[in-house]
Queue: 4 jobs
Job 1
Amino acid sequence: MSPADPAMVSTPDQDRSRPPIIDDTSWRTAAFRLGGNPLPLLPPVRMYVCGITPYDVTHVGHAATLVWADVAAAVMRLAGAAVVTARNVTDVDDVLTSAAAQHGQRYDRFAAVHEYQFGHDLDALRVREPQHAPRAARHVDQVIALAAALLAAGVAYEWDGSVVFRGAAVPGAAGLDDREASRLLEDYGAGRERDGYETPYDVAVWQRSGAGDPAWPSPWGWGRPGWHAECAAMTLATLGARIDVLAGGADLAFPHHVYQSAMTAAVSGVPLARAHLHVGTVGIDGAKMAKSTQNLVLVADLLQHYRPEVLRMLLLDRVWHQPWQFAHADLDAAGDRLDRIYSAAGRVGASEAAAAAVTDALLDDLDVSGALAIAEDAGGTPARRLLRVLALD
């Protein structure tokens, strides 16, 4: 099976006007580094962004990941490359189903409401729409096709109405020992049914549905997609077997991105992504920000008191891959810095050397803080260009 097979190709879920895949400058790209390594940009550049599971409102951790992915795409376009992005919506997930049941609602209606609220927050933060927005519920056939291909390749097996991916080699490939891998799998609810799997590191590609679970017919009975398989199938369907950048929060690196990549590589024969954009997680008062600890800072609440561009500046004025701590006082500092950049942009001047230095900073592993410092000092055209690239104007 390949992404060109009809079973693995889908129509984009949104009918939007899209930028051309290749334009007049696509083949004249500048040097770009990501994650400390050179990333030659061969157009069209394909970036898959792990989006949301729409069962809760947007917190600043969600926002940080998607704002950084948005800027990464803008910087690659600045380098002269055409960029095609896909950002998924995981609207089939056991966490979502459980949250909907607690509110006495169907999972699909519950997801639609929260997806709308999430989209409203992203619009306020000026996160640009992706070219593709695949939803898991619309790619069930692609997951079934992926499960069949993994079985045919001998890297999956059937068990009690489910199709299970053999993952014994996955933790080692990710550089994790057994203890850490097991802990992370448990943190992400790998499933109690693993007691019947061949190894503790196997994960469901297709899982049998019980009463109250979403369910679709399949060759193995009524069931639903597994989480990692959803993103694997949606990546194949929208962007193909080989992409340039896989983006998401650092907490998705394992298990989600590693298993997603292992499944696609098992059927395509090539590694999924040339580079990763794993955005640092956010904490507050020394603890990780998470619903389970009831310490979420919601974007909608912040936007009642701060301009959206101030929050966007707060998220961007840092090293993208490092964990960070949220503090309300930092929003005031972000607002002050943004105002200084605005003042600098209003000055007359067009230093070509400064403009080049701003571009070089952005191309060097998305050094936004360095670019801001140069733009604030130089002012004029370099500052105005930077504000446009960062969507802060």
Job 2
Amino acid sequence: MFEIDVRGNTARGIREGVLTFEYEGDKSLIDIPYAAFASPVKADLGYKIFENGEVEVTGSIAFSLKGQCSRCLSDVERTYEGEVDALFVPNLPSGEEDYGYFGGKIDLREALRDALMFALPARLECESECSLPAWE
């Protein structure tokens, strides 16, 4: 589920693919009081394997948060979306801008965690006046 077999796909002549799956979001990423994931994170991804072994993974994630509004404390559940846009480079050491992979297989967990982290809102707000900017 969290893996692309680059070596196996290349041997079979497969250069592109689609991955659709759900997974439990990392609760430690939520920094909003009284908020939690209301559903699994849904990932819709596509990948393209290039001749040099690099793999581009793009797509989206969607998830719902439930909890109390950060402003009025009413119960709320909202859905959010985020983008996944990652380049995996063979034998790239960690700490680089792109993601590395070794042994012909890509582990998507780090890229999905990063996409989820960037998609999480700073606060959970209900859809009433609480979600309007403060200057309105």
Job 3
Amino acid sequence: MSDQDLHLLLSVSAAMFVILAAAQIFGRLAPWVGQPVVFGEMAAGVALGPSLFGALAPDVSSELFTSEVRPILFFIAMTGLSLYMFVVGVEHKEPAHKSGHTSMPFVMATAGIAAPVVIGAVAATLVAGDLRPDNIDGTLFAVFVGGALSVTAFPMLARILQQRGMMHTPFGMIATRTAAIDDAFAWCLLAVVGASVGGGPLEGLVRTILPASAFTLAVFCVLPMLFRKPMQAAVREGRIGEGLFGALILLVLGAGWFTDYIGIYSVFGGFIVGMALPRVQGFSSLLSTSVLPTVRSLMLPVFFAFSGLNTDITQLSGHLIPVTLVILVAAFVSKTASSVVVMRAYRCDWRSSAAMGALMNARGLMILIFINIGLGLGVIEQRMYSILVVVALVTTALALPLYRRMYSAAREDEGRAAAAAEAVQAAAGGARTSSRTKATAGDSITPPR
């Protein structure tokens, strides 16, 4: 090993140590202020950037995160994201239980995409000024900002509900289905935006959309045939063997390379592959146990830190303060209002509707992935990126406290009891009464008190 290689190894190791230590500290502090661990890790990434660490100790920061170290951090972060999105894609495939009106999640997800995209695009157009890059069309810029505001973090929302014991209640199942559909819509929108950058619609169609469509069709046709039996065997054995695990890793990396090559970023490759795998009950739990601990504790903190290095909240002064407030209000109001309107249309009570609207604002990691891709594509510049990071932090921080305020512990107990009773009845083969069958979605979410 040459002296130069040894120096680079020591530099990367030092940067990784600081990043992981900060993530552990902030992550452990987060529950003390009523936030999930991932929020603390997000905050740690921002704190390591020019917003705090770089401002307090600029010489130490520049020595730690050198121009040689940053590309390696980027590689670790993007590899981790590809694996993370792969697991997210697999989790989307898990079968779910009944939860009242089956159309509600789709309708709410559609409204939760449409309203933020429209309202966010209008807000972005009104306040854009010099925040829009000169070479980016105004419509493309506005749609991207609106798309960023439409994101709901399905993995984060699911883990919040798991921690609250609400995952398999009617309320929890509607929330997770809505977030899953929302995410899928948002990634499709981002793929279209990415295909439109750097050329006209025809060029984007030939260079990106057609290859992406062919790739998606191919993996959805081929992967179920190749992986169903090995996945079923893994579930029976209670472990993923080295051969299957290695094949899945190669698949994710190969898919990431291809999608990156055609211009829609490697994270899409992992997500599409995860979605295309066959639906095998229990496999996502095995996969999460095998992959997520390393990805969450090692790779995702690096992504948060890399995002933080690109975020300078100290720039948001003067006229950028009202711009930030406008984008923040547009994000929160559009997402909350669309959820409340749909829930009320399905005859849900106000407190359940408001609680759902609060949870849909948990943008978490997903919006950071979204805007990092936009920054890499040149659709947004540094200041708008920092504004959207603030939106990610504030709306995510509000989600859990507002949910807990709207959805009391007593109501959660009722939901869990109703879900347990339904599971017992289903296991016993009991049939529902006709009155129960005709119950409204609001009644299934909020049992009679």
Job 4
Amino acid sequence: MAVGKSELATILAEKTGQSHRQSLGFINAFIDAVGEKLAEKEKVQLTGFGVFEVRERKSRLARNMRTGETITVPATVVPVFKAGKALKERVK
């Protein structure tokens, strides 16, 4: 079961003593800030949590499963998250 943004805001509100609305605002601001930095191709590193970064995927050949036709998948930039050591240990 996944925890959504609203449920996460409720948890943060309980832990910080802020209102649900303030916590939701913080989450939205965090997502916007990380997105902006990734769009600028900058790395966002949160010690103990992990690293958000962008990676470039090269163009490649793939096969259309229905027709068997070979197609070219264009190069693209994708966001990536790598969990930090403390987060990995906590999940174990």
